[in-house]
Amino acid sequence: MSDVTLKAKWGQISLLFSANFLSLLGNGLSAIAIPWFVYDLTGNAVITATIAIAGQLPNIVVGLFSGPLIDKFSARTTSIFCDTVNAFAVLLIPLLYAVDLLDLALLGFLVFLSQVIDVPGQTAKSVMIPALIDREGLRRERVNGMNSLLETVADLLTPSMAGILIAAFGATTVLILDSLSFLMALMIVSIGIKATRQQDAANTNKQPVKEVWKWILSTPGILKLGLYDLIINTVAVSLLSLTLPVLANSNDKQAVWLGIWLTCFACGTTLTTLAYTFLGHRVSSLRLLQLTPIGQALGLALLLWMFSTDWTSGNVETAAIIISLGMFVYGVNLGVGSVVDATVLQKLVPEDKRGTVFSAFSSLRYTGVPLGLFLTGILLEQNNPTLLFTTFIALLTINSLLWVRGASEI
Description:
This protein has 410 residues and is mainly alpha-helical. It has helices at 3-42, 45-73, 75-98, 104-136, 140-169, 171-192, 200-204, 209-217, 220-249, 255-279, 285-307, 316-334, 337-348, 354-365, 369-381, 385-401.
């Protein structure tokens, strides 16, 4: 294959990667800035958890119904529309706060709106990837690995960026940058990505939500993967979007250390994803699904050790470094999940069902997140991080047991 042909084949997917990266960058910034902003306003972990739940509910509800819209209006159109609305929803938070018109109810609504529109937007980008893979004849594992690597790079950059920007300029500045990232993403998709015509079957054979769930329930590998991800996301979202921001904020406002912890986590996920991109064909996906939850639990055991006592009462630097190590170990064992998910789903789901099935699967993944955030907020407000991290570790141990008998599809 000539260099010109290879460049042409990868041109569209590279632009899509760029747009997806910018959207993820915006999501990562807001995931840190919004809890910090709310806790600064209220000083209450339960209220902070409530706002966080408002941002997570759409992952469950909207995912059930956004798929048919993607199939009807095309993934490209859906992505452009959602990034546009998301940009303005996020931008309204600092603008309304600047003119003293922002209350908690309105803030909760804007966070909810941002996530409502972000769910189909991100799902649309996920649907566009396999369409381009099929059209250009690209290697599925390599493309998925590179896309996942960009996701982990976004995870790597956003914590340190957010921590530094919050410490220097405040959370509202981070939210403005978040809005700009969505605007740039929609420009790339609208100008650079060619519209792809879906197959006639995708336009005429719409999949009702009820039928999609029947199909998911009849495919054991996908169902088990969804339950596995449910537990993984319950722990991960509660840890990253609420637990660490609150614990850092409530202990002498350690914004810089928060950024370092999350950067160490992202370094771990980046390392694993990079290795899997090139060596994944040599490793059993089933074995990874069995062992990585145990590795995640070991990483959180270090956080349990530090946060079970007042980690700022002694040598803050030593305690924070141990927490950083724990987050790195946790990230190393979490990083491969999105690559395995994407590859399995793309292989098992027919093209005419992708929009609806991907959305339904996304809903299943996030079903446990609101409950996890609510319980996390209560335990943090009760100043009981010991029980919180013990619960996280127990859930991850259960997750490993899901794959003891394996699954033929995986």
